[in-house]
């Protein structure tokens, strides 16, 4: 984004290599790397993303194939476990490990898609509210207040009921329910930035509204939005799981972590692994996104540097 | 308006609506409240000169600066820059020529530069906005030239603002203001956030640039030493009005208006630490409900009955205009008496 102005002539770069500051990406990585938790989180996300992408190659079994000889078989290290089902099987004999690996695909794409949808629309709406103020702001913020007054899951259920059950509609519903957080966050950050003199300088200089909004102001509002988005991925996974549990989200036999968790709730006492492993996957993934969000905030905020 | 006038402000009035929301007003039975930030200000600035506006905090000097810079709409009156009324611009395109010729330097060097942009991009922004140069080698050279003009190194273009000190940031601000080759620069307290030693450097840089580039400055300041160093003409503001304006030398050596005299008395003189001075008693009244008549009369040691109900009109005193009944009636004593029992004085008189 900033590189077009900043291309340095090759002569200068060649004569004074030591004085040349590192590129944006290198500087960012240098700051990010110092946060150990964030690096661990990033590693986990990379691994989980890898599982999701290469699920057909990694998973030992097809996620939907039932094995009628092995209902609720325990993991391999427990009595009765077998090497063909490393983490055991569920109530109808499906391999738990394979379903977890395939579930990474579904859960991650739900989380990311929901966050992208609500982040993009939330930033646009919040930017309009914060920048233009007046009746536009009042209308937008009151509409967001209305969304916030309704219990989020209940509202999501209503939206899915109107649109019809299914994964895509569940994602739209969750995105709409989480929208007010992004709108409010963006508006507050934009109002804070607009009072600063660099915005006045841009106005005095004749920059257009759109340029001030998205080139000058938005990058300075990014830090809280990035943190909210990383938390939002986990919240979206959980919300989508809740809808799946109610039969409004991912439809069986889709192997989505939240749905797996919900399906297994009646076996909590008899077969701990059926509940524990999907729960652990959600926990680890959510934790990883939060750690990375923290690290991103620290690395992206120039005020926290050095 | 003389031919060499570059900027002329006529009857400028700026008011802000500070009312509570409608519902609160209905419940508490209060009316609308208006802040009278600037009231009927007239001033002319000659090309190539420095006009300084001084006054206490909240007297409206920054509002005048923002109105002239086109980021605040006037409630009444007008600002004409190079003979064009700036309030008449309907579209952004129409105002582009004026925006190119008029730039601004800000008080806080930590807020006036976008923290996420590199210095090179900050300085390039006005050039790119006005389409003066295409991105590329020519633009890079121009940025390097601007950086050396303000005393920075060309390699600083690749750094971020947080890597610089306050004085250096103010130099970057000046480089950005110069980028579009303006004729007029509004300087809103350009040195009040800086160390004294750095202040002098920045002021000397501004003077050097003025001589080299023929710039005109509107300098907003509350620091009379800065004003004495820089200004050709001077306007003294009190509660939204200009009480005295004219030749800077005359105003500083032989001030007429009681407020100007009291303001100058507050400047410490290292050569005469024990000289007798008249204290400025009381506090600035609220611009929400300015006093009737002369706005200064509740704090003025020579105010009389007429001052409390009639707004004084400017009268000519040699090279200056003074808005004061006492000056007009020639009843001003050579040294002002202290006010022992100031009217409407809620503050500590000591």
TrEMBL record, chain A:
Q: Name the Gene3D superfamilies on file.
A: MetI-like
Name the SUPFAM superfamilies on file. MetI-like
List the transmembrane segments. 38-59, 106-132, 153-177, 225-250, 271-292
Q: Which organism is it from?
A: Flaviflagellibacter deserti
Pfam families the UniProt entry points to: BPD_transp_1, OppC_N
Designated name of the protein:
ABC transporter permease subunit
Q: How does it sit in the membrane?
A: Multi-pass membrane protein
In terms of InterPro entries, this protein maps to: BP-dependent_transpt_permease, MetI-like, MetI-like_sf, OppC_N
Chief place where the protein resides = membrane
Q: Please indicate which superkingdom the organism of origin belongs to.
A: Bacteria
Localization per record: Cell membrane
Which UniProt keywords are given for this protein, alphabetically ordered?
Cell membrane, Membrane, Peptide transport, Protein transport, Transmembrane, Transmembrane helix, Transport
Domain ABC transmembrane type-1: where?
A: 104-293
In the record, the note on similarity to other proteins reads: Belongs to the binding-protein-dependent transport system permease family.
């Amino acid at each position: 984004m900033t590189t077009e102005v900043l291309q340095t002539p090759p002569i200068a770069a060649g004569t004074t290599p030591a004085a040349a500051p590192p590129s944006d990406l290198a500087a960012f990585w240098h700051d990010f790397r110092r946060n150990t938790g964030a690096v661990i989180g990033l590693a986990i996300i990379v691994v989980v993303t890898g599982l999701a992408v290469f699920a057909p190659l990694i998973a030992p079994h097809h996620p939907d194939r039932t094995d009628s000889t092995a209902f609720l078989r325990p993991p391999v290290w427990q009595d009765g476990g077998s090497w063909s089902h490393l983490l055991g099987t569920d109530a109808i004999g499906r391999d738990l490990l394979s379903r977890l690996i395939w579930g990474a695909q579904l859960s991650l794409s739900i989380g990311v898609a929901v966050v992208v949808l609500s982040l993009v629309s939330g930033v646009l709406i919040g930017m309009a509210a914060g920048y233009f103020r007046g009746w536009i702001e009042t209308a937008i913020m009151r509409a967001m207040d209305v969304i916030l007054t309704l219990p989020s899951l209940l509202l999501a259920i209503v939206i899915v009921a109107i649109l019809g059950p299914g994964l895509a509609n569940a994602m739209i519903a969750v995105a709409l329910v989480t929208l007010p957080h992004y709108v409010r966050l963006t508006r507050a950050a934009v109002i804070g930035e607009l009072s600063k003199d660099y915005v006045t300088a841009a106005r005095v200089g004749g920059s257009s509204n759109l340029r001030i909004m998205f080139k000058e102001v938005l990058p300075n509002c990014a830090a809280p939005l990035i943190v909210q988005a990383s938390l939002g991925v986990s919240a979206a996974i959980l919300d989508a799981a809740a809808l799946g549990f109610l039969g409004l989200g991912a439809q069986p036999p889709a192997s989505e972590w939240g749905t797996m968790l919900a399906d297994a709730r009646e076996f909590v006492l008899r077969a701990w692994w059926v509940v524990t492993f999907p729960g652990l996957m959600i926990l680890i993934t959510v934790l990883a996104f939060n750690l990375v969000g923290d690290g991103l905030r620290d690395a992206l905020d120039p005020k926290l540097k050095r | 308006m003389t031919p060499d006038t570059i900027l002329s402000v006529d009857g400028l009035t700026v008011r802000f609506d500070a009312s509570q929301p409608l519902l609160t007003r209905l419940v508490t039975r209060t009316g609308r409240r208006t802040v009278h930030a600037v009231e009927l200000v007239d001033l002319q600035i000659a090309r190539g000169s420095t006009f300084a506006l001084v006054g206490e905090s909240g007297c409206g000097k920054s509002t005048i600066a923002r109105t002239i810079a086109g980021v605040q709409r006037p409630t009444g009156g007008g600002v004409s820059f190079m003979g064009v009324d700036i309030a008449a611009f309907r579209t952004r395109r129409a105002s582009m020529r004026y925006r190119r010729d008029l730039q601004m330097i800000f008080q806080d060097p930590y807020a006036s530069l976008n923290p996420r942009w590199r210095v090179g991009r900050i300085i390039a922004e006005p050039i790119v906005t006005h389409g003066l140069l295409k991105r590329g080698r020519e633009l890079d050279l121009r940025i390097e030239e601007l950086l050396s003009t303000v005393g920075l190194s060309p390699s600083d273009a690749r750094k971020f603002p947080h890597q610089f000190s306050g004085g250096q940031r103010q130099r970057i601000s000046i480089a950005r203001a110069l980028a579009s080759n303006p004729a007029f620069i509004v300087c809103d307290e350009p040195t009040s956030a800086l160390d004294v030693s750095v202040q002098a450097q920045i002021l000397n840089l501004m003077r050097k640039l003025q001589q080299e580039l023929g710039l005109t400055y509107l300098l907003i300041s509350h620091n009379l030493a800065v004003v004495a160093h820089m200004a050709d003409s001077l306007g003294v503001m009190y509660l939204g009005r200009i009480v005295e304006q004219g030749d800077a030398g005359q105003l500083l050596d032989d001030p007429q208006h009681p407020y100007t005299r009291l303001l100058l008395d507050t400047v410490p003189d290292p050569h005469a630490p024990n000289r007798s001075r008249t204290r400025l008693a009381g506090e600035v009244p609220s611009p929400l409900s300015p006093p009737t008549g002369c706005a200064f009369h509740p704090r003025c040691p020579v105010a009389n009955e007429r001052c409390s109900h009639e707004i004084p009109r400017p009268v000519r005193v040699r090279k200056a205009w003074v808005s004061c009944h006492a000056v007009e009636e020639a009843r001003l004593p050579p040294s002002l008496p202290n006010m022992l029992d100031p009217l409407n004085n809620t503050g500590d008189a000591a």
